[in-house]
Design goal:
The chain has a domain at 24-108. A hairpin with a 7-residue loop joins strand 4 (109-118) and strand 5. The protein is mainly beta. Strands 3-2-1-4-5 form a 5-stranded antiparallel sheet. The protein is flat, with a radius of gyration of 19 Å. Helix content is 7%, strand content 37%.
């Protein structure tokens, strides 16, 4: 006798691209990307940072985790994601010469938008990635000290 199954109604929990979500930064961890240059056959690597966010919006996506990546380099160049994202989350300018400890960013709130990124190795797989990191609007998501 075979096994019998009944199709369950399960919602599609793919984060939509056209929505702004409240989020909290939960982790920043280093990651090294390695590859071989196709022309020179030279082994190369690049240090990156994975930024992990948890959706805190009060909806069916609450608790979902999504990531963003950027080079592990902090500079005052206008397109430096590390600095740009940190400035948004900290809600202040980060001038040249100022250091950032990633632990100071953990737990802070922001808003994010999502983009869908197709896998390079399997076109049927789609990854959810942070597209934009925006300032938190409204009340703070982080509990303030009572003094």
């Amino acid at each position: 006798m075979g096994l019998s199954f009944v199709t369950e109604d399960e919602p599609d929990l793919t984060l939509p691209e056209d929505t702004i979500f409240r989020a909290r930064l939960t982790e920043i961890k280093p990651k090294e990307i390695k590859w071989v240059d196709k022309v020179t056959q030279e082994h190369k690597s690049k240090d990156m940072l994975e930024w992990w966010f948890e959706i805190t919006s009060e909806n069916l996506y609450k608790g979902r985790k999504v990531k963003a990546e950027c080079p592990a380099k902090l500079s005052n160049h206008p397109s430096n994601q590390f600095r740009n994202w940190s400035q948004v989350i900290l809600d202040r300018e980060i001038p040249a010469g100022m250091g950032i400890d990633t632990d100071d960013l953990i737990g802070l709130a922001c808003e994010v938008t999502i983009r869908h990124e197709k896998s390079k190795s399997d076109a049927s797989r789609v990854f959810e990635r942070i597209d934009e990191i925006l300032p938190a609007s409204g009340a703070s998501f982080v509990e303030e000290p009572p003094f």
